[in-house]
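Regression test case RT-17, inverse folding.

Input:
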């Protein structure tokens, strides 16, 4: 058994094991010695990489779930159904891992349940906590039919199917609320957050950018899954997802430009300092470059071009959230925050855990539709192939999941 394990050990598996081991060791350090011994957080920098990346980025990167759900079940674009299941799985795992990351950052993680009974409706963080809890539950219900189908629990599937539409609508509403509310948290920091990032429209920026990066995550997840499971890529669907990403990037770019003009801070764009460089890097890499690339039909029709553009959107999104959380706060704090090795190890371990969980769930559960023979728009579409030959309970499963 040990010999077979080492024969199947690839470079990526080896890296994954090392990252999980490092994350595990850092977890022991964090919960045995506390935040002071395991992080570089301080009173000036109480929120570091665990909030900036694990939570703010994690929630945004899981936005593909509500984005695709809105397309399929609100706007009735049923042709996107073949990529719904893996998108929902990505979102569900993303929210679980966001909660895991939050547990590391909380000084008293065992009190995380207090928000359930100790209500403070005037707090934005209270609203975010409830929305995340409820939406995680909704994602669990939406993904449940995949598990139930595996064990042929068709009666339970029918029950979930009967309430699927209200669940999906609630999920979209909850996502809209907390994606924007994460930006609302920073509205109380007008004197702390650097003016290039602070804006009274931060909630709107957070929401629009979440939709854009949700589209990018759908594209990236589809490409990585096709390589991992040796499947064909639904390019005709991903091209349309790329077009939606172009629209949202254009809206976001125009809004942020008008905001800078309205707040009379354009002069900050030419000041030679770290905040200026990071802002331009974020805008060029994550907004302007993919906006230009995805606007070209030739790029959207190219697997390499589409994937590269999606990666740029994701990088720009992560940079924006990290700039708001860290870079934009350094001038006010009067110090530079650099995450400690345990902080990096925990974050990388959580990300690795997400990849591993997705791989094994997708391997042993019916997450992907069966391969078809007409992926390029032949006599029948992929969703027709998937639905064809199913019994009534299985078809109900498809329509229950986002």
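Golden output:
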């Amino acid at each position: 058994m040990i010999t077979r394990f080492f024969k199947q050990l690839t470079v990526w598996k080896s890296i994954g094991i090392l990252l999980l081991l490092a994350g595990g060791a850092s977890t022991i350090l964090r919960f045995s010695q506390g935040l002071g011994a395991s992080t570089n957080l301080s009173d000036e920098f109480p929120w570091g990489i665990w909030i900036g990346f694990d939570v703010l980025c994690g929630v945004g990167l899981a936005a593909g779930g509500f984005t695709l759900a809105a397309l399929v079940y609100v706007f009735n674009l049923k042709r996107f159904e073949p990529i719904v299941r893996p998108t929902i799985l990505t979102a569900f795992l993303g929210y679980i891992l966001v909660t895991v990351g939050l547990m590391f950052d909380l000084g008293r993680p065992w009190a995380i349940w207090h928000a359930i009974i100790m209500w403070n409706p005037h707090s934005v963080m209270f609203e975010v906590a409830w929305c995340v809890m409820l939406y995680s539950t909704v994602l669990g219900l939406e993904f449940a039919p995949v598990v139930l189908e595996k064990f042929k629990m068709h009666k339970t599937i029918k029950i979930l199917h009967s309430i699927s539409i209200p669940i999906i609508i609630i999920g979209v509403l909850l996502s809209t609320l907390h994606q924007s509310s994460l930006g609302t948290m920073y509205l109380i920091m007008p004197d702390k957050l650097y003016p290039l990032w602070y804006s009274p429209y931060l909630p709107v920026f957070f929401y629009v950018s979440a939709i854009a990066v949700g589209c990018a995550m759908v594209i990236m997840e589809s490409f990585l899954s096709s390589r991992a499971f040796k499947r064909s890529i639904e390019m005709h669907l991903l091209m349309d997802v790329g077009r939606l990403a172009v629209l949202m990037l254009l809206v976001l770019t125009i809004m942020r430009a008008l905001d800078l003009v309205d707040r009379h801070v354009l002069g900050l764009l030419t000041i030679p300092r770290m905040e200026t460089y990071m802002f331009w890097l974020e805008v060029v890499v994550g907004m302007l470059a993919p906006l230009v690339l995805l606007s070209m039909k030739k790029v959207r029709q190219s697997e390499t071009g589409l994937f590269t553009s999606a990666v740029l959107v994701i990088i720009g999104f992560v940079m924006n959230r990290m700039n708001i959380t860290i870079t934009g706060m350094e001038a006010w704090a009067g110090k530079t925050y650099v995450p400690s090795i345990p902080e990096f190890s925990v974050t990388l371990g959580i990300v690795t855990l997400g990849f591993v969980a997705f791989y094994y769930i997708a391997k042993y559960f019916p997450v992907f539709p069966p391969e078809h023979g007409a992926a390029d728009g032949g006599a029948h579409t992929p969703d027709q192939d998937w639905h064809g030959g199913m019994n009534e309970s299985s078809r109900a499963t498809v329509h229950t999941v986002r």
